[in-house]
Fold:
Amino acid sequence: MEAAWARLAAHHKSVAARPISTLFAHGDRPAEFSATACGFLFDYSKTNIDREGRELLLELAEAAQIGTARAAMFTGEKINRTEGRAVLHTALRALDAEVQVDGQDVMAAVRATHARMCTFAEAVRSGAFTVSGGAVRDVVNIGIGGSDLGPAMACLALAPQADGPRCHFVSNVDGAHVHDVLAGLDPARTLVIVASKTFTTIETMTNAGHVRDWLAAAGLDPAAHLVALSSATGKTAEWGIPPARVFGFEDWVGGRYSVWGPIGLSLMLAIGPARFNDFLAGAAAMDRHFREAPLQENLPVLLALVGIWHNQICGHATRAVLPYDQRLARLPAYLQQLEMESNGKRVAMDGQDLTRHSGPIVWGEPGTNGQHAFYQLLHQGTRIVPAEFLIAARGHEPDLDNQHRLLIANCLAQAQALLEGRSLETAREMMAARGFTGDDLEMQARHRVFPGNRPSTLLVYERLSPAALGGILALYEHRVFVEGVILGINSFDQWGVELGKELALALAPALEGEAVPAEPSTAALVAHLRALRGEA
Ligand code: F6P
Structure:
């Protein structure tokens, strides 16, 4: 493994100064440095990866034994070693597969829960299931992290297919969130989903308690409105939620990988079971591709290797995800949890320090909005940010197809501008034509230089259908997995979120004035905030 890293580092040194654009002089680079599968085209031709670089990256993947690791995940081995768990979110979308954990079939329960979800969703959508005031008009999903980001992102992404009740999402413990979501809703016509794998998360339980009070204050029986989605089905009874409205899942479904099962109930309510099944099928197709395609044609592997090249080899710490698809507005946030909670680790699986950087800082916004905000830095900042563009060939609004063409043009233009830039000579000619001369011309021209040579990739799909969304999410899930395997990280635990949670609980008495924090900076800030609140 170390030899493969060293060969890559040496190769990078020899090509680092080379302009990416020169690579297009030989052969059919767009065809040679792109791959297609499951209705997607992944183009990585606008990176500084050449044939040799790709060979070395594939050697790295081979050295990391991706194939063995992949088989271990899909067959239910306990690869999440710090929690002693298997990692089987893929089983949630392979309903006819046979999967065992500890020698026990797990698929019968998965299929049964899926069937119960479908029956419930149909009943809600048809009006056969009623809450106190009749048919359900609004659904409020209370959850955070993986119990929020997946369904919230997917409900927005698939809005054109949504013909069920309106879905709303409450995640933040900031009371403003639940207040604003409930404002205008009729409690008598609202179904409340409490989504929490553990059913202990303070934000979710606090918000759920408030919503329960909101229902009771309207003279309703809260239990008639509540649904629970959880691995801790024992805890849901305390909330008086009838077992028929509890949808459980196993601990081998990680929070950030959970949209495919019960945590996806709000999405199923919005788009209906048939389209939800298309969403699963799109992901399952990507799973098959990931398991079967040779590494050099394997989209998740290629995305991962491009990511490793940019982050660990070239040293670019961040990655911008830029969907030219307004309905993927929450995709960057979803991917932040998927990638940063999975691969933001400082030790390897064996507990030893990592010898290179962990996963990248992921951020982004939909195009074209981002163009008028942070693209300035992408084009002319001193740091290089590899950009990942996503674009559909078609939108869902035929009468606005001219706008979709403009969207595509913007996406391709940005990638081209990042690649080619604009030279000082061209900038001088431009400014001379505008009448500038002498030092003024030079100064004006220098501000208009684009260094170019900034890498980007593009993922193209036909249209953002449920299947396409499923494929995109599975593609990114497996990409994160491959990067984790190459880095030697356990991508499926998240110990880094614990300390802040513990400290927040410990600070509660200090905010009540019952204790003074030992840490002086925190103590001073608590005192200041209490004074502003008129409490001290
Ligand atoms: O604090 C992080 C985390 O554990 C995430 O991994 C998870 O998705 C989120 O909190 C919510 O957890 P739960 O579904 O158990 O409420």
